[in-house]
Specification:
Length: 455
């Protein structure tokens, strides 16, 4: 990932996001009337007002289906007259065969280096705030492993009263917590630094996912081993895979909301995501959420491990490297409509996206359809949780003219997501990590949506 060569897009590889679920007929059934009201309670009303206005003025596909008769609703369908599949025909449930396109994908622009690679979450095809376990993005520095939980151990040593080695059984009988958090790779959206317009939101922003994690608070384990909180200012986390991933976690974070987790979305972690044990460091760049966690060491200095010196440093305009950029700052992106999709007709659309902040909750999300000249406040879906994704929606009527869609999130600390121009003023253009700039999607007159950079 760090090798700039790996960040070059292969030319001519523009690819359409297949999960374009905007139906031509339904979209055309809605008109402009009432669509400016973005207040939650008025959504239904304005939606139906638009429907009614549409019925009065245009001949609509939805009306035609009702009046002329649509065999798909009038005739009995084969699946209504046969026996369905028995229960437990699939002991572990899988998505419908019609959803086969919803997949994690490797970016056409990134070269796979041995097993070290990344598969991106298909944000354009997801709803709400939770990422299904099978679609959580994957980032491995040396491939993934499937570790026998009976053979797995967690050791805690360093500045502690007594070293301890835990089995999974030891850990899982301790008092657990379950919390919803995002994990975002520090390199998410990294290719946009260099003005490289990656085609789809899967590849611009798909190194973020949000799941419910279950495990023990790290603070509890630190108390159990009698960590020396006077001298012990840092915790080193070490992974059990071949990459020897090691990261320094500041003690304030370690004693705050860090989880030593074994479960994700209600079941044991998936192997790709660290089974049977991983660290979840909420709000912090993904690399600190060490997978296949095997050791924690309490120390009095940052460790300066290889993954903190040659990787995950930010090259600043003055040529210096900034180290330990920890927090994932406030950020948002529109996931539909987004790059590679196409608006099939003019008329009503629900603009939908996600917002998050490594510093807490999202306070507000604004949306612009004219490249940042005018902004409207979006509706935020509940629950709005700290260091988790927040889903936002806003009504929009596309008039067929070119448009530039943007979202801008503000978190509870008052931090406002910056335009790329402001970020470049501070960070220059040679960074890879920590790009939280406002994303712009251009809608062309033919409805095609593409990735553009707007100051
Ligand atoms: N042991 C280990 N932990 C690891 C990694 C790894 O390669 N090995 N990758 C890190 C990086 S860079 C990220 S972004 C997250 C990704 O977590 P995920 O694969 O569950 O999405 O895991 C982190 N933890
Ligand atoms: Mo990462």
């Amino acid at each position: 990932m760090l090798n700039p060569k790996n960040l070059e897009l292969q030319p001519g590889k523009l690819q359409k996001a297949p999960e374009n679920f905007l139906s031509r007929d339904f979209a055309s059934a809605l008109t402009e009337q009432g669509m400016d009201d973005t207040r939650r309670g008025f959504l239904r009303n304005s939606f139906f007002a638009a429907m009614a206005a549409g019925v009065a003025t245009t001949s609509l596909a939805t009306d035609a289906r009702a009046s002329e008769g649509d065999p798909a609703i009038l005739q009995k369908q084969p699946w209504q007259t046969t026996l369905g599949q028995p229960v437990a025909a699939k002991p572990y449930g899988m998505p419908s065969k019609y959803e086969a396109n919803l997949q994690r994908r490797e970016s056409p622009g990134l070269t796979r280096v041995s097993a070290a690679s990344v598969a991106f979450t298909p944000l354009q095809g997801l709803f709400g705030m939770i990422t299904p376990s099978g679609l959580h993005f994957e980032r491995h520095h040396q491939g993934w492993v499937d570790i026998d939980p009976a053979q797995h151990r967690l050791m805690i040593n360093g500045l502690v009263k007594k070293d301890m080695v835990f089995t999974m059984e030891d850990l899982m009988r301790l008092p657990s917590v379950s919390r919803i958090h995002f994990i975002e790779c520090g390199a998410n959206t990294g290719m946009e630094w260099g003005n490289v317009a990656v085609p789809t939101v899967q590849y611009t922003h798909g190194m973020i996912s949000c799941c419910e994690f279950t495990g023990i608070p790290l603070s509890l384990l630190l108390d159990m081993v009698g960590a020396d909180f006077t001298k012990g200012k840092y915790v080193l986390a070490e992974g059990g895979d071949g990459s020897g991933m090691t990261r320094t976690i500041p003690m304030e974070l370690a004693r705050d909301d860090v989880i030593v987790a074994w479960a994700m979305n209600g079941e044991m972690l998936r192997p790709e995501n660290g089974y049977p044990l991983r660290l979840v460091v909420p709000g912090v760049q993904g690399v600190s959420s060490v997978k296949w966690l095997r050791r924690l060491e309490v120390g009095d200095m940052p460790y300066g491990a290889k993954d903190e010196t040659i990787h995950y440093v930010d090259l600043m305009p003055d040529g210096m490297h900034r180290q330990y950029t920890t927090i994932q700052e406030c950020k948002s992106v529109i996931t539909t409509p987004s790059g590679g999709q196409q608006l099939l007709t003019t008329g009503f659309y629900n603009i939908s996206g996600i917002a998050w902040s490594g510093r807490g909750k999202i306070k507000r999300v604004d949306v612009s359809v004219d490249g940042g000249r005018n902004w409207r406040e979006a509706r935020m879906e509940s629950p709005i949780l700290s260091k988790a994704l927040t889903r936002f929606n806003i009504n929009w009527v596309w008039d067929g003219k070119p448009a530039i869609l943007q979202s801008r999130a503000i978190d509870e600390t008052g931090y406002v997501q910056p335009p790329i121009r402001m970020l470049r003023e501070v960070r220059g253009t040679r960074s890879i990590y920590h790009n939280n700039a406002i994303q712009s999607w251009k809608v062309d007159t033919n409805g095609e949506v593409s990735n553009v950079q707007v100051g």
